[in-house]
Design brief:
alpha+beta; three-stranded antiparallel beta sheet; about 270 residues; 15 strands
């Protein structure tokens, strides 16, 4: 069993919950997770694995209550817990990956592969990565757009001018809802859909589900690149910092990459 401090605490029944206790994977959890993963529901598969390996969360030990609380877990916290579950099960902290060199004339790759001989081991070690934690009651962020957008309502009403938004740190439930609506083949709109589900205010005014379904995606589609990149940075600012520096041995280029945690998750499931 392992005790973990969540990067982003959750609020439940007026209390802040920031600690979870996990246990190793069982055959039942692996089978349930694989089944959902094979159906293309990656975020739901993550939720099932975390729920199946949770012994307690805060003071809760009752299974139905644990499942209810986990609906409020942010994606970034779930990602961190998931990796901890897999390293607990595998008894190591290694992640393999393949990272193409960005130099246009190179075509080389940096291969990070595990080897029992430490002198030949080029895999990345999770324990070397920084974990950035949010404040106890920090569950959302406000963002002022660099380039405000206008949404035409098309129903005779005044256009909606958007200069600021407030967004909760997306939960697994937000991600699953967006995946159901947008599918997995349109990655950019899927990300916008996740922001749409987590959206709480526009221009300082609260928005409901009806407003988000009607205007949310259109609003994010109108945003310029710098604003979307800034939103992505805000969403990802807490949790495991997965950006690493790599060195291409073929051409000498130094570059930064995102650690391939999805590959770690998928390869761990394939190994069973």
């Amino acid at each position: 069993m392992g005790e973990i401090q969540l990067p982003i605490p959750m609020s439940y029944q007026g209390k802040s919950i920031g600690e979870i206790s996990i246990s190793p994977l069982t055959g039942s959890v692996i089978a349930d997770t694989k089944k959902i993963m094979d159906e293309g529901m990656a975020y739901e598969a993550m939720r099932i694995m975390v729920a199946g390996c949770t012994e307690s969360i805060g003071e809760a030990t009752d299974r139905p209550q644990i499942r209810e609380i986990l609906r409020r877990m942010t994606y970034k916290s779930a990602e961190y817990v998931l990796i901890k579950i897999l390293t607990l099960e595998q008894n190591d902290n290694k992640i393999e990956g393949s990272y193409p060199c960005p130099h246009p004339a190179c075509g080389g790759k940096v291969l990070c592969q595990f080897n029992e001989d430490e002198s030949l081991d080029t895999s990345d070690d999770i324990s070397d990565l920084e974990v950035v934690r949010a404040g106890e009651n920090e569950s959302s962020f406000d963002y002022d757009l660099l380039d405000p957008v206008t949404i035409e309502t098309g129903d005779g009403e005044e256009p909606i001018n958007v200069s600021s938004v407030a967004i909760n740190f997306p939960t697994l439930n937000d991600c699953s809802m967006a995946l159901r609506k947008r599918g997995q083949n349109d990655h950019v709109r899927l990300q916008m859909g996740i922001y749409q589900e987590a959206l709480t205010k526009v221009g300082g005014h609260e928005v409901d589900t009806k407003w988000k379904n009607r205007y949310g995606l259109r609003m994010f589609e109108k945003m310029k690149g710098p604003d979307l990149r800034a939103l992505s940075k805000e969403v990802d600012k807490y949790g495991l910092k997965t950006e690493l520096e790599k060195h291409c041995l073929k051409c000498g280029t130094m570059f930064h990459v995102e650690l391939d945690t999805a590959n770690f998750f998928a390869s761990a499931l394939r190994s069973h």
